[in-house]
Each structure stands twice: as structure tokens, then as C-alpha cells.
Amino acid sequence: MEQRFRVDLRGVVDLLSQHLYSSPRVYARELLQNAADAITARRALAPEADPEAEPGRVVFEIEADGTLRVHDNGVGLTEPEVHTFLASVGRTSKRDELGFARQDFLGQFGIGLLSCFMVADTIEVLTRSVTGTPAVRWTGHADGRYLVEVDDDARSSVGTTVVLRPRAGSAHWFAPDQVRDLVQAYGHLLDVEVVRQAPETAELRLTEPRAPWEIEDDPEVRRLALLDHGTRLLGSRPMDVIDLRVPEAGLVGVGFVLPTASGVGPAGHRVYLKRMLLSENAAGLVPEWAFFVRCVVDTSVLRPTASREGLYDDDLLSRVRESLGAQIRDWLLDLSVRHPDRLAAFLRVHHLGVKALAVRDDEMLRLVDAGLPFETSRGTMTLRAFRRNAPVLRYAETVDEFRALAAIASAAGTPLVNAGYAYDTEILERLPRIDRSITVRRLDPGELAARLEALPAELEAELAGFLRVARDVLVEFGCVPLIRQFEPVTVPALYVMSRQAHDQDAVARDLAQADDLWSDVLSAFAEVEIEHRPELVLNWRHPLIRRMSAGPPGATLRHGIEALYGQALLAGHHPLRAVDTAALNRSFLALLDRAFAGPPAGGGTGAADPPPEEMP
Ligand SMILES: Nc1ncnc2c1ncn2[C@@H]1O[C@H](COP(=O)(O)OP(=O)(O)OP(=O)(O)O)[C@@H](O)[C@H]1O
Question: According to its UniProt record, which protein family does this protein belong to (predicted)?
Fold first, then answer.
């Protein structure tokens, strides 16, 4: 025998309260929404079918005993409609014959009224239909029982009153201030008048005449009013405001540019659906890169999730995301053309987001090129300004490399950009995409060393003995000496690892850690590349180098070269191996010892100490 499903209402209410809605507060939203929809339905009637129609009005009336009555002058319900729509879970009057949500209505699922069972055991609905039938009283209980009575005295005018008496423990949800806050939060933009009436207080209007983006004053007045609105929303004054519009989704609103990079206020966007607040923290409305914008928008077409607390992530939402992204990007480009000062202020705060975008987007790349200051060996300037005097855009890949080489590179006629921060190298390497004439090169320190000025041949020949000692000392570190003259004179020696030497060094380090099989393979490779060694470039312009080259080729010179080598490693922020650290310690102590040569204090003869020249 065929049977019909039976629904356990208590189970459904539990399901809604524990798994669908985040808080009982949504009861106020659902009541407000039903009242607004009923007014919308009444407005849609032809004037002759409803000669008594008056402006839509919803009253949240709180009585002295805590009972809440919500009155609307909407379309009302007939007795058969009460049976169909109020008493059937999932039945709604807000879908068309094919089951599609009807555009003008807020509700669509046919479950909203059940949310009242989270705060009350009984829902009473008193309703008089615009069609002229007698008034009806419906009383629904959380356990699934309901009663329908035709009672023409239940309500005198067309419309509906919903009566809720707080369940034990829920009275706070009906407190006058709470009702004010909830209704105002959800419904302040609704285009019906919503008021609160409470004992011993004047009637309070809870809706505003217009949304912030509907202010139609002169553009500057509007901008200031919007910025004030953004200040209230974010807790600090937004940097700017962007008008947003996606007709396909019936979306209008504004985006506030956050005043700090860390973000203030709620992380997501404030979204209204048909002027009713859907979420103060909606995700996925703008592309990820636009994290510097917090939106306040109203949409008539995007779909809510069943809980009405977020947006349903469908194709339309992804098209909206794309369109809003394009509008935010246009705002940025417009700033770059018309308000460079505002662009500079924006970039100071949000450079990271813009750089992240420039890695994928040519327009943003142009913006970075023209507007974002980079650290360069010629001072802080935009890449475009840097290129004016440097045909090749050469960059250091790390901040350490930049710090170590900027001054030397600049003096050698190779100006340098610091590309050591997030996204920098990708951005620089992408620049030829926007202008083919741009040449971008990663600095090869080896190439830089080759550009440093050589000494006259006869002078270099005179220094052969000194260089031989240096070569002999440095062999232990896999490094070779070179003598050049370069600026700044304050740098006595420069440790230079060319790209090839760098790669070879990586192999050597792997070799030290590899097991037998791998070490055979790697060592074969290392032998082929053996000619690329790091160089210690000694600066002939530095007086210390000149003095060292003139001194005797004894132990002091050897320690001096070791110390120069260690100092150059440290100055360039190069990693130190065990052998390097040992050399640094050894040379440092030996040179100190020599500096303080003489009899030790305390009456000793010092005979036990080896003279410094003979130290190992
Ligand atoms: N104030 C009201 N005036 C007239 N009809 C109402 C009123 N409140 C509820 N109804 C009727 O009851 C039906 C069910 O309401 P309910 O709030 O459960 O769902 P809904 O609004 O249709 O959809 P949703 O679950 O998305 O809110 C509505 O479709 C409507 O026909």
C-alpha cells in the first residue's frame, strides 16, 4: 500500500537550529522578510483590485509581557492559502508554476517561518486577505500540531500579524533593544517603512530612506558621505571609495579601499540581497588579489544559500567576481593617470597586493612600472625612471646581494635594482611583455667582477709574489684571488661567486652530504665544471691592500688574507662553512695577538709564547 511521508516537525526545527542557522537571531530576519514580501505582493496588484492600498509598513510591537506582534499591511492570506503555505513545510507562494524563485521576493524556500520555533513554542498568524475573504487565525505548535480558525475579528485590515510569545530562556530575543538591533541590522535598507513600538517609548523608525550608494549629491559631497559611511563600517577612514555595478546580477554598491594593509573591521563583504542584509562577512565576491577592498553591495539576482548567511557559489557569482575585479582594476589605472598622489599613497600601503596582481596582469604591470618605487643603486625610484638612464635593467636577486654589490656595481657603470622582495624578480622578468625594447638581466656577480678596472700590466706583474701567497692561502677555500681597482675605496675585498661558480658550489655541498652512489655521479659533474671558482677581488684603491702587498710574505700576510676573505664573506652575507669559520677565528686571534705583541702582564717573560710570525 502506498504511504505518504510524515515529517517530524521537532526534528526539522532541531535540524534548522543546529545545522542551518547560525543563531536564533535569524527569526527577526524571517519575519521581516515575510512581511516585506507580502507588501511586495500587494504592490504588484492592479490598483482596481486593491483600491485601499497604502504605503507598505511593518510594525514590530513589543508588549509589556514580552509578547512580540509583527504587523504588516501586505497581501494577507485566505483560508486555503493558510493551509497550503503556512502548514506545509517547504511550500512557498514565492515561486512560479515551474518552481523558479520569483524575482521580486526575498523568500523562496518555504521554511523561514519555522525559524520562529527557535525562540517560541507557538506561532500565531492573524491574517486578512486582500481578496476580501474573512480573516483567519492559524496557530502552529513546535510539536507539529496546528489549528486554523476563520475569525473575522482576528484582524480588521488587510495584512498579517504574527504573534510570538517567548519560550522560557528566550525572552532576551524579544527585548526592545534587541529587536531594534536585529531589525535594523537586517532591514535598514528595505524600501518599506519598518518601525518598533515598545511600552513607554516613542515609535522608532528602523529603516533608512536610501542606501549609501544612492546619495545623489554633487560627486565630491557624495564621495565624502560615502567615506563617512565607510568610516563607520570599517572603524577607520577608508583610503578611497569605488562605485561598483554589475547589471547582470542586479548588483550596485561601493568598495572601500582599506586604509591599512593588515585589514580592519570584518574580513568579508557586506552583501544585501534585495535590500535585506544577507551577510556582513561574505566571501568570494571579489578576486583574491583585491584584498584591499571591502564591498558593500546590494544584489537582486545572486542566490543566497538556504541559511541566507552567504552567497551560493555558482557561475553567476564567478562572473560577478570577474566584473568587480575589472572595476577595481580600472579604478587603479584611473588613479595612475589622474591622481598620482593618491596612487602613491595607495601603493605605500598595498604594494604587496598590487605586485601579486602584476605577476599575472599586464595593466597592473604597467602600474607597477610607472608608480611603484623600487630600491636601486641610484636611490629609490620607479622602474620606468630607472630605465631612462640605464639601457639594461639589471637586478640583484636577493637583498643581501643588492646590499653587497649595489655601490660597486653602480661605480662600475652597472646600476642595479633590488629585486629581493616578494614578486620582484617575476615582475622584472615580465617587463618586456609591456615593452619589447626593455632588456632585463639578472646580475651575475662574475660578470660584475669582469667589469672592474684591471691594473696596468707592469703593476700587476710587480704584484705577482703577493698574489701567489694569496692564491696559496685561498686554495683551502676553493677560491682564487684577483686584483682590480674599484669604488668604493672603503671596500678592501669583494667575494664574488659567479652563477656558474654558484651552481658548482651547490654540487660540492650536495657532494659533502651525498651517499656513495650519488657522490660518484656528482663528483664527475663537478670535475667538468672545475674552472668556475669564487673570486676574492682585492681592491688596489684600498690602502690596506697596498700595504699588504708591500709587506713580507710571512705568516702575518697569510692571516691578513684569511681575514680579508672572511670579512668579504661576512660583508656579502655569504654562508660560512666550517672551514671558513675556522679561518676567521684563526686569523682574527693571530692578528690580535700580533697587535698586542710584547711581554704578557704579571711578570712573565713571554718566552713560552711563540713569536706571532711563527704561529701556525
Ligand atoms: N506575513 C505574511 N504575509 C503573507 N503571507 C505570509 C506571511 N508570512 C508567511 N507567509 C506565507 O507563508 C509561506 C511560507 O513562509 P516561510 O517564511 O516559511 O517561507 P518563504 O518566505 O516562502 O521562504 P523562505 O524559507 O526562503 O523564507 C510564504 O511563502 C507565504 O506564502
Answer: Belongs to the heat shock protein 90 family.
